[in-house]
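Handout, section 3.2

Students often ask what a structure token actually looks like in practice. Rather than define it abstractly, here is a full record for TOBE domain-containing protein. The first block is the sequence as you would receive it.
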Amino acid sequence: MKLPGSAQPPRLLSAELRIAGGMDTRVFELLRGVEATGSILRAAATVGLSHKGARLILENAANLAQQPLLASVAGGAGGGGTRLTPQARVLLEAWDGLRAELDEFLGAQEARLATMPELAGLLRRMSMKTTARNQYAGTISALELGPVSAQVTVRIGTGDEIVATMTAAAAKRLDARVGQEALVLVKASAVVLVTDFAGWKLSARNQLSGTVSRMDKGQVSTLVVLTLPGGGTVSATVTNEGAQALGLKVGVPATAVFKAYSVMVAVRE
């Protein structure tokens, strides 16, 4: 899996602008929509709000401004409608100016971040959104390509190595290279916990040993978090009966086991 990218990388910084404590982007998008369409109903549709929701937002904005922002236009050749009051146009102009200044400020800070590659890299990794509970940043340390399948090894920040198996075609699309920065994703449901191997060896390539540091019990299952010696964590979802049978509790040593084919690797385009 490749992280979305382009010649111009996505911004790492963003900020929400509000005026008078409650006038945000939605208010001014609605005002702009009313100015363009002459209708609250049509303006609401352009912003993705219901007519009722748009009216409530605009009424609240007028209360904050302590002056009317909209005026009705009587029917005639144009059919009537709604227009902005002079006060609303002043507010809209002020908003556009503030928005431009904020964008300029954020752009300057983005340029500053470009001189701090380690921090910028950290923020990019943190910006990825995924349902996989286990996410690790690391570097590809080994790559084995076969005619049918490929094996990618990623050394994560704790010093542990996680192995992923994928098809050769997937590896080709990924265009992975040794030394390349990568993210490793593992769903908690794919992790098996072992507290006693009883002299047996498992075929699963990935085995991370740690200590139970947290347990969140639900009606059916329990989320168990292991803390690794290097400071990282691994989360696993087990049934409540399974957690009880293993004698899991905070402080108990355990090993998180997951197969290589359950690991997803992401690299930036």
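Discussion prompt for tutorial groups: Confidence is low (pLDDT under 50) at residues 4-8. How would you have guessed this from the sequence alone?
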